[in-house]
Each structure stands twice: as structure tokens, then as C-alpha cells.
Design goal:
This protein has about 200 residues and is α/β, with parallel strands linked by helices. Helix content is about 25%, strand content about 20%.
Length: about 200
Amino acid sequence: MEKIKKILIGTNNIGKYKELKDLLPKSIAKYSPIDFKILSPKETGVNFEQNSFIKASYFSKKTNLICLADDSGLEIDILKGAPGIYSSRWAGKKNDFNLGIKKVFKEISKIKNMEKIKKKARFICCLTLFFPSGESHTKKGIINGQIILKKRGKKGFGYDPIFLPSGYSQTFGEMDPKIKISIDHRYKAYSKLKFFF
């Protein structure tokens, strides 16, 4: 199997683009939909797998490049798995995750005895690698942890400042990005596709 030499990273989210770019080998030429002035497709899937496939196939067909696209989000047990696939939508049209975090806090505050309940959560990432030939591969990565009710740290993006991964004392927002990228959901999904690169 010939190794991939160039790839389109199928996201218009700058934080996500940077994390995926940092996972890929330095020798690969990397492109973004921004380079082609392509807007993201509507995410009409009912789960992370479907949405990552929608993005990867859409961007690949638009550019005729191999595309790696992710769909990821935060599932919180006491919110019955919300925000889940709607994680970025909770952040509003401008992807302001301060809004998303406020919404998480608001929803949790409605729950009786919420101080005493352990706020188990997980980040899930589905990565799809889509080839112009129509061949595709989708893999999933999960990291478990819990939600804290006060933001900590300015690193990372999205819900990182309120997510404390199991076995660590720092949130993803406080953690050195090099450490985060070696343990998180995106890394776990990517490690299952690594042999293509």
C-alpha cells in the first residue's frame, strides 16, 4: 500500500485543524477547506460516524483529494449523553464555546443534588479517511473523565477547560498540548488509521 503524500483535513474549525495537523507526519502536505474556500456541509447524521463520513466524502469530492475529517463531541451522563453530536451547535452560530460551557452548567444546575452526583463524561471522536475512489475507513476514539463546574486553563479549545480526564489532575484546558494530543479521543481514533500514513 502506497503511503499518503498529501491530504485535506476536512474541518473549518481552526482548533481541530491544528490538532489533526499535529497528529499527521510532518512529511505530508496538508490542506484545509479554507485553502479552497469551501464551506462545511450540513451535518445531518444521527451519530459521530455518519457526520464524520458526510464531511470527509463531501470535502474529498469537492477537491478530488484524500480527506481526513472528524466529528467529535462531549457526552455527559447526567445530561443523558448531551450535548453529544450537538456539541458545536451548543456553542451557537459563531462557535463560541463560552456559550456552550454556560449551557452545560445551566443544564447541570437543573438537576437535583447535582453537587453530590459524579459528573461522568467522555469525549468521542470519529475520524473518517475518504479516498476519491470512494474507499473509506472510519475509526472511533473515546477518552473518559468528568465535568468540573468551573473553567480551568486557557489551552485547548471547545469544552477542554471543563473536562478532567480520568487519572489526571489537569483539565484539557490546563494540560500541555503535547500531552493532551498523546492521550485524547482524536489521538485514539487517529492511531487506528495511522498505518495509512
